[in-house]
Amino acid sequence: MLVAAARAASSKCLLAHPARAAPGLRRCISAASSPAKLDPAPTSIYIHWPYCEAKCTYCSFNKYHIPVNGQDHDRMLKCIEIDLAHALRTDPSQLYSHLGEAVGQVRQESRSLPWDEQGSKPEAAAEDLPSRSKPHIRSIYFGGGTPSLMLPSTVESICEMISQSCSVDPHVEISLEANPTSMSLDKLSAFKQAGVNRLSLGLQSLNDQDLAFFGRDHSAADGLRSAEMAMRIFDNVSLDMIWGRPGQTVDEWRKELQIIASMNSAHMSLYQLQVERGTPLHKWVAQKQVAEYDSDVLADFYEATRETAAQCGFQQYEVSSFYNTRFAPPRKSRHNTAYWEGHEYIGVGPGAHGRRHSWKSPERYRTFCVQSPNAWMKQCESHGHGVRRITRISEEDAMKEIVVFGLRTYEGVSCDTFERFSKGVPLHQFLDGEALDHFIELGLIMWSQDGRKLRPTARGLAVIDHIVADMI
Ligand SMILES: C[S@@+](CC[C@H](N)C(=O)[O-])C[C@H]1O[C@@H](n2cnc3c(N)ncnc32)[C@H](O)[C@@H]1O
Ligand code: SF4
After folding, report:
1. What residues are paired with 139 via a beta bridge?
2. Model confidence, pTM
3. Where do the domains of the chain lie, and which CATH numbers do they carry?
4. Could you read off the pLDDT of 314-344 as tens digits, one per residue?
5. Dist. CA 379 → ligand 1 center (Å)
6. Sequence-ordered list of residues with C-beta below 8 angstroms from that of 65, at least 6 positions apart, any chain
7. Which ligand 2 atom sits nearest the alpha carbon of residue 216?
8. Is-cis flag, bond preceding 330, omega within 30?
9. Among candidates 384, 312, 472, 376, which has minimal Cα distance to 87?
């Protein structure tokens, strides 16, 4: 997995030079170079910070206004530590038999966990991990909400806890999502000191009217300034933009994208605007106050995105993801690649999801944390974890997931990866043969020369969700 992306921690990589590394990272390195036996299956960790200064009109993520009394950083940190410690020390099959498929809050009569009985603070100490070597952590992602509203000391404590409890890859990618309004040079430096080595910055648009329509609390100029600032501190910065916005023309988008691309960040995530249920945007579209583009116009936007990004030196490697070809090695998102390739990830924090692999059997599970920050914190404090629901991933679902995510990337689905999930059933046998042949004939997908990878073509990537639906 993650061949080139694994080195995304940069050629000027602090990690490659421990002597120059920031304190949080130094701890990760020393943990990585400890003699602990490495778990061959890499794991990622997702930590959700749920608060935002303003709620954007298109956003359906699990986010909440900052409480009137401010964010309770100490309590949040304590609960993240509880939730993470539990995930690191508990086999998901054990949690499954404990919670079953129950939906909703964990029942009060649920069994309390060992540290409750002992009355001690939960620690995910290595010696506590039963029948398993330390998890091997390849990426950590602070997502939100707005994680740039966290205290850098919170991020540092979490990185420290992970480095003590896990075997951390020397090239670990530690990403943090940031909003232009909640960052300063000092704060970014402090995040870097804490261990963060990749910053994902949400710009969304360079049009002030669109930013106001989206409910963003920054101007285009603020966005550009914050991107410059981020790139002074981090050499792995990803810029997020949204295209297909109401009233936007393809030409305007090309110009906007040229400006963003000329900033020469390591990576860009260029998303088509999604009208998500439960958002103000969805209501406006339903009430016909806002018109959506039809699929032909969106196809033009998509083509303009690919063309402009390529002209500016960015290579697409997934439907919405582009790396800068001037950076060696390329800074593909290691964390997202882990999602796409079906690897395990632990999800911690309000509303976080996880994909867990049992240590004892080939079973896989999906975990869902309690959504509201207050209810999640209460449950962490009373039950020793924040998971509200855990479901088993059937073999068929696991195989479908590998195909769906794999075909959204230029790498495509590898037969080797697929067969790890299919108990040897070959990929071509799993897919609908007629549909497969049809899409190959249309030039939308193709087999690699050695026949071990099924890949979308550039044209295929534009319509990949429709293609996949017909094949599985
Ligand atoms: C978890 S969000 C938030 C990151 C950060 N709080 C921010 O707003 O800049 C990550 C990215 O998802 C994208 N996104 C969120 N909702 C979207 C939607 N409805 N359509 C397209 N992109 C969306 C945005 O580009 C955003 O930067
Ligand atoms: S700031 Fe980010 S997470 Fe918060 S509402 Fe806006 S897009 Fe969503």
Report:
1. 44, 173
2. 0.87
3. 5-336 (3.20.20.70), 396-471 (1.10.10.920)
4. 999 999 999 999 999 999 999 999 999 889 9
5. 28
6. 51, 52, 53, 54, 55
7. 6
8. no
9. 384
